[in-house]
């Protein structure tokens, strides 16, 4: 089975390839370099559908897209769908996380709770559309740590680690992240739907 992955983010491609290899090795995930649609949705689901529909229309193949971000509780769920552009019009990951840390400079534990969210849309040309979501709860560190992953990973401390462990995702291996992340959780919810491709 072949499915198009409609993303221009090479980190997402790498993570999807590794998640799919671990759970659906028979699935052939191909990249997408067609036109990038305007992501003007106000929810993760709307943006994921915009991207997956564009790829399905362009390729004629079943298409997946991930729209994701970090949602901080004391900020009412922001940056949310604006995560990629939080600090301005260029996708500057360092500026984004520095701004977020500044915004939380007066916020102490236990109020630094946040979650990563991954929403995946699957669009089958002339067929069904599905949307699934995965969420990964944790807390924000006060300074970035670690070189792994991308985006906000150096400031996100997942809850699902041994009591007292404070490692950011930047300090996790790719294998650890891809077994536990919001993206892995969303993909797990997608698995039954991929069975009828
Ligand atoms: P595509 O739209 O081409 O897929 P993008 O990076 O612009 O790529 P989004 O619009 O979904 O994708 O923005 C997601 C942003 O959320 C991303 O740029 C990061 O800042 C953040 N993000 C999402 N998943 C993340 C993860 O696993 N680790 C760290 N940050 C993440």
From TrEMBL:
One of the Pfam families matching this protein, by short name: Ham1p_like
Cofactor: Mg(2+)
Keywords: Hydrolase, Magnesium, Metal-binding, Nucleotide metabolism, Nucleotide-binding
Protein task: Pyrophosphatase that catalyzes the hydrolysis of nucleoside triphosphates to their monophosphate derivatives, with a high preference for the non-canonical purine nucleotides XTP (xanthosine triphosphate), dITP (deoxyinosine triphosphate) and ITP. Seems to function as a house-cleaning enzyme that removes non-canonical purine nucleotides from the nucleotide pool, thus preventing their incorporation into DNA/RNA and avoiding chromosomal lesions.
Catalysed reactions listed for this entry: ITP + H2O = IMP + diphosphate + H(+); dITP + H2O = dIMP + diphosphate + H(+); XTP + H2O = XMP + diphosphate + H(+)
Positions of Mg(2+) binding: 67
Name of this chain's protein: dITP/XTP pyrophosphatase
Enzyme superclass (EC): hydrolase
Subunit structure: Homodimer.
Record-listed substrate binding positions: 7-12, 68, 150-153, 177, 182-183
Entry keyword Membrane: no
Annotated family: Belongs to the HAM1 NTPase family.
Documented EC number(s): 3.6.1.66
């Amino acid at each position: 089975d072949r499915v198009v992955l409609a993303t221009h983010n090479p980190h997402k491609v790498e993570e999807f390839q590794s998640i799919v290899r671990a759970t659906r090795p028979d699935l052939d995930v191909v990249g997408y370099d067609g036109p990038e649609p305007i992501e003007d949705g106000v929810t993760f689901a709307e943006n994921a559908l915009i991207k997956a529909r564009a790829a399905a229309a362009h390729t004629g193949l079943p298409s997946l897209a991930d729209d994701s971000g970090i949602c901080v509780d004391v900020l009412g769920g922001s940056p949310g769908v604006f995560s990629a552009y939080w600090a301005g019009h260029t996708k500057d990951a360092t500026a984004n996380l520095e701004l977020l840390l500044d915004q939380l400079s007066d916020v102490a534990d236990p109020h630094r709770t946040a979650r990563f969210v991954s929403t995946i849309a699957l669009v089958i040309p002339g067929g069904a559309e599905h949307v699934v979501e995965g969420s990964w709860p944790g807390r924000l560190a006060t300074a970035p740590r670690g070189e792994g992953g991308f985006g906000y990973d150096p400031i996100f401390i997942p809850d699902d680690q041994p009591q007292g462990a404070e490692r950011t995702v930047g300090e996790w291996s790719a294998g650890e992240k891809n077994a536990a992340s919001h993206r892995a959780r969303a993909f797990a919810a997608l698995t039954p739907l991929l069975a009828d491709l």
